[in-house]
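Collaborator request log, item 7. Partner lab (contact: R.S.) asked for a structural prediction of Cytokinin riboside 5'-monophosphate phosphoribohydrolase to inform their binding assays.
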Amino acid sequence: MPRRVCVYCAASQRVDEHYRKLAEQVGTRLARSGYELIYGGGDVGLMGALARSVHRHGGHVVGVIPEALQEREGIAYELADALIVTQTLQERKAVMFTRADAFLVLPGGFGTLEEFMEVLTLRQLGYHHKPIVLLNYRGFFDLLLRFFEWLRRERFVPDRWPFAVASDVDEAFALLERALAPTDSSHADRS
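Returned to partner:
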């Protein structure tokens, strides 16, 4: 059974071209590494670039999209190998979470940040032990990481963050490979 990576990223069509190229690189690596993509089901923005790249390189795409978004023309990636339609955004997140073996966070807006914060919080509270990798491409998340550091200094969060940070695609996939490598203990901390 292929390992399944849930990728959170932007649906915005207005972002700079270099972000789209990043999504394409990630899609290529997912497919070539034998990972199945679990994502938000969109055919727009980084989401669409990511899914199309996975398919172009022979990978498997599972999209999860709320019915209200699927009904908007041109939003859903109808070519997905599986397109799961949910009633609500909350149900969409639950399906993505349940199906994933790991999470990879690319640049994105409020939705991406909200999804990252949810799986991060659930990991910190012990509801899962799935690896989370934040791809800090071109320092995109630097301000957020500085805020997290301040939270740590003020003792609002633990000293050890329950996620890993990568600065480029190669590092992100090295972290995923290490975290998803078989271990003797299924409960080993893999971040």
